[in-house]
Amino acid sequence: xxxxxxxxxxxxxxxxxxxxxxxxxxxxxxxxxxxxxxxxxxxxxxxxxxxxxxxxxxxxxxxxxxxxxxxxxxxxxxxxxxxxxxxxxxxxxxxxxxxxxxxxxxxxxxxxxxxxxxxxxxxxxxxxxxxxxxxxxxxxxxxxxxxxxxxxxxxxxxxxxxxxxxxxxxxxxxxxxxxxxxxxxxxxxxxxxxxxxxxxxxxxxxxxxxxxxxxxxxxxxxxxxxxxxxxxxxxxxxxxxxxxxxxxxxxxxxxxxxxxxxxxxxxxxxxxxxxxxxxxxxxxxxxxxxxxxxxxxxxxxxxxxxxxxxxxxxxxxxxxxxxxxxxxxxx
Length: 331
Fold this sequence. Notes:
Elements: E1 2-10, E2 13-22, E3 25-30, E4 35-42, E5 48-50, E6 72-74, E7 80-81, E8 85-88, E9 91-94, E10 103-104, E11 117-123, E12 127-136, E13 147-156, E14 159-168, E15 172-173, E16 177-179, E17 193-196, E18 201-205, E19 211-216, E20 228-229, H1 230-237, E21 241-245, E22 252-259, E23 264-270, E24 274-278, E25 294-298, E26 313-314, E27 320-330
Antiparallel strand pairs: 1-2, 2-3, 3-4, 4-5, 6-16, 7-10, 8-9, 11-12, 12-13, 13-14, 14-27, 15-26, 17-20, 17-22, 18-19, 18-21, 21-24, 22-23, 23-27, 24-25
């Protein structure tokens, strides 16, 4: 086991880089966005290889035009809020609009664009724990209340657990998530990957990808309850950017990504109710369209405007807590 830290200058400020190496995994984290930058895991022959998209330099990760939320912690609200506005306790809040008419992933300077404070790094014989902290002031991107947030990574042999905790001094809305970009072959396309999402329903969306209903996936190209070859799915759908409704309480498997050639498997376990499945439809140079799969465990998009989609409000005296676990294996 080894843990290395250093700082690099970027246009966003000094970014701390933390590199963790264990017997069967290497992970590089950034204080910029409390983000995953690189992950190396073994294939079936034991050869380590990169499975997460990253830019050539740490400085590149601070450039909005280059970085589509790569591996970052999303907040204050992951996914979209319709019209860049919501009403809470009779008060209407106007948010930063950065995705057509909507707010996406907290706005132009959402939490994945900010430099978090490295609060603690601990290691024992089996795992390394890294905690990042962020204070989001009242009015940040238009959201009410000051929020104190923590993202904690626990890296162990073949596993990355992400724990999210937040408190607020006034009523607000919150949904934290990781926006990883995964390619288990380290290649230029995910067409040769298989994907399973154990969920019988997904959200329907309007032209700006705001939820407008729920539909069953059975009998459609979106049915991923059994593993499906992504090449075929992408050919039919043109690309995935869909939120699936996960069933069951507590920690459960929300997604499983496989690559037959390397033998690598990544399972996503989460206690979140939704899984946003995004196939890199809008990736730009230096990446390729459909080069990665994002599996974003989260609360539902636009829930601040649609209470039927489930709870999303955080009030003083309460604690928001969520967990997502990435489990790497081979077959």
